[in-house]
Amino acid sequence: MAIEIEQPSVGLSKVAVSKTHGEDSPYFAGWKAYDENPYDESDNQSGVIQMGLAENQVSFDLLEKFLEEHSEASSWGKGAPGFRENALFQDYHGLKSFRQAMANFMEQIRGGRAKFNPDRIVLTAGATAANELLTFILADPGDALLVPTPYYPGFDRDLRWRTGVKIVSIHCDSSNNFQVTPQALEAAYQCAESMNLKVRGVLITNPSNPSGATLQRSVLEEILDFATRKNIHLVSDEIYSGSTFSSPEFISIAEVLDARDYKNSERVHIVYSLSKDLGLPGFRVGTIYSYNDKVVTTARRMSSFTLISSQTQHLLACMLSNKEFTENYIKTNRERLSKRYDMIIKGLKNAGIECLKGNAGLFCWMNLSPLLEEPTREGELALWKTILNEVKINISPGSSCHCSEPGWFRVCFANMSEQTLGVALERIHKFMEQRKRKET
Amino acid sequence: MTLTRSIQYPNPEPEVQTRKPGRATAMRLIVPLQGVVQGRGGLIFGSLIPCALFYFLQLYLKRHRSSNSRSNPPSPSTSSPNLAEITRTSSRSNLLSRGLIGPVRISSRAMSIAKPNDSPYYIGLDKASEDPYDRISNPDGVIQLGLLENRLCFDLIAKWMSENLSDSMMGREGGDLSISGITTYQPVDGTMELKLAMAGFMSRVMGGTVSFEPSQMVLTAGATPAIETLCFCLADHGNAFLVPTPYYPGFDRDVKWRTGVELIPVHCRSTDNFILSITALDQAFNQTRKRGTKIRGILLSNPANPVGNLLSREMLYNLLDFAREKNIHIISDEIFAGTMYGNEEFVSMAEVLDSENFDKNRVHIVYGLSKDLSLPGFRVGMIYSFNENVLAAARKLTRFSSISALTQRLVVSMLLDTRFIEEYIETNKKRVQNMRDLFVAGLKTLGIRCADSSAGFCCWADMSKLIPTYSEKGELELWDKLLNVAKINVTPGSACHCIEPGWFRCCFTTLAQEDIPVVMERIRKVADTSTLCS
User: Fold this and answer.
1) Is the domain B166-417 a CATH 3.40.640.10 member?
2) Is the minimum CB–CB distance between A132 and chain B shorter than 8 Å?
3) Are A294 and B114 a contacting pair at CB < 8 A?
């Protein structure tokens, strides 16, 4: 029954007035603080340093260089042949050349250990849309998806808001480096059942956000077996797959399926995007790769609501089909991320802060539990506020990622210059020194 | 683009199961069992044990049933695609699959979309793309008159592109089409530069009589998500919008698919040149309310697709009065506003709101560059609203359908080139009008008249004299002949929910002038055989 809201004038829908967009959480509140007082190397050295946004700016020069040397990517040549077809092209199949290039790129990232068929690629305007679309397709309103905690705060909005689907947490903790266990999977399933929710799938992020670690093969096998036993779907968000910078090597669910000869694969779907690995979030490029024909067909049709600009597809097709460029990019990007990671870990260690051992992503998962006044969510949020207001750094509190252990924070290191990162580490160091002195 | 036929949609759905077979089986077990037990243990056992068995059987069947969603109550609407039909279909396969795990299930929303497209819209599009007409290389191919694309001024846009893009992406001085600054996360509802540029463009194409505020815009990847997002904001699952017929087939997808919102057709007649009447609107409103369905708003396209006529200023006032009286919203899709020809003046909802003291909170406009600037592939659309709460919600929702920053920058550059835009608007108007006049005249010589229209890419042709029976069936027979014999893809009126059979939507902006006689000749052949047979 639609409720007429107290407004005297015409009413809005439940979706419009609901808070499920989640933008009141500290995750987003910190961004607002940054927007109001952003740090700038020259103009605003006392501003807030943004370490809550997982953006990759370390390899932008490689993209620029490519476009400089390959003007055919950004135009359509003299007399613009092909332009007409491109500007008129709104086919939800997407440009074949672009899908082919994406498939190749995804294979390259996985070292050729898995093959991708371009006809199974569905294009969406970003992974945000891809995750929502898959949820619309795999679950009905009121159904549930199981998601390991801690997870990307955006999932609360992307998986639940318009879809009406619920998230049930698979609890992970630091005792085993936040890896998913069969017990945790089963417990989550039972929890959903006890709430009378029909579980439709498991959604994992591999490499994980916010922990910054890749999933072990044995864990992937367990999760796949679990999904098969329960006859539910498995969505693997591999958006950080190209941002694995140290060992162990990233293992995709596609490789696990390959080893099993693709038996039972019609329950598996992979989400990918160029927002993190290629540092192009502004271009809105996401994909769903599904081993299920019906899901591919349906997702394709639904993608009408979220098509990628054909101009963008054209440019990226040129870029990603250039093997020399992609090989060099993947390698160089990895090296630079590794260097950044080492820098931040060292800096934090010098300040007396430990992080989870990570090998991928654009962030590290920092343990500040020793600093909490009380080992609770409130204590964590108090610390978060202090860091935001006094240290003037925006980091993401674990509670906004639904972490069951208070005191963990996600800190991004790739969305600023090395110099800015240095400034941030200095501030943290000073803060920790001050605290130590207060205690003695 | 995509279309779901809503009328008499065949729906084979063998995988779906219901409770009925289960109960029958249970009874067949319990009755003889009762007889056995009562002989020994008396009345108590005779009742308890069968009940227990019955309970466990139901539990077992419940576990192994690959069920349809309980949370999707059958929708009473005749125009909703199949949610109701799915739950009514029953199947015995529940018994057969006991113990077997079936294929992993997808949602009911997805099931209705996964069916093969048997709508004339799709079949026609497929045929046309498999065997496309080319004057020189494939003169016997299918001529595409079913896709609302404008190719008449491509030479102008292509010229602009080749002149302006050559030095573009290099980040040099004056290279304002570089990628610097646009690769990172942008405001999800579009850059201010593009909003400003769109405000200027919209004002220009709508005759300069109204101005638009960038702060009231939410940009989306095309007008398709703009419509869907508005529906998510204004209506709950099970609510409805009134929509005048005939209407753009895509509304069935945009409004209904994922939102669960219904469309209630308000039929317009050829005697009124398919202009909406407030009486019909009122009737539809009352009838729907009696059914227990809440109407949340009216969805209009102005200029209209497929008819191509305009809503007069007076009609806009009447609609605003009606909306106020019923306390509902108005969505005005004005995507063809810049494709006017002839002497009539286009009046936007925004213009009327400016001039009078209406409650602006209920009005929302949809716009985009797919038609007026012929760039459908670039995905540039918008929601323009006067309601702060709607804007706040839409701004957050549009993250699921944001425009590529690369494209935003290119489009800004184009829109700011006022000399080019002027030339484009004027030339486009002339060419569209010219093509339309030739096409309509051509049809006239065949005895086919078109509805009066002032805008758009198509004419709304009355071929009722050519259909074998005055019915939807007859119309589809003619459509089939036109596609497979005459090899012309046109859109039948039934796909647009037109209540009068025999009307066809024919788009003429994908043609060259030389193609028109070819089209007319092909129609003539079919027309001759049709009149012979009837």
Assistant:
1) yes
2) yes
3) yes
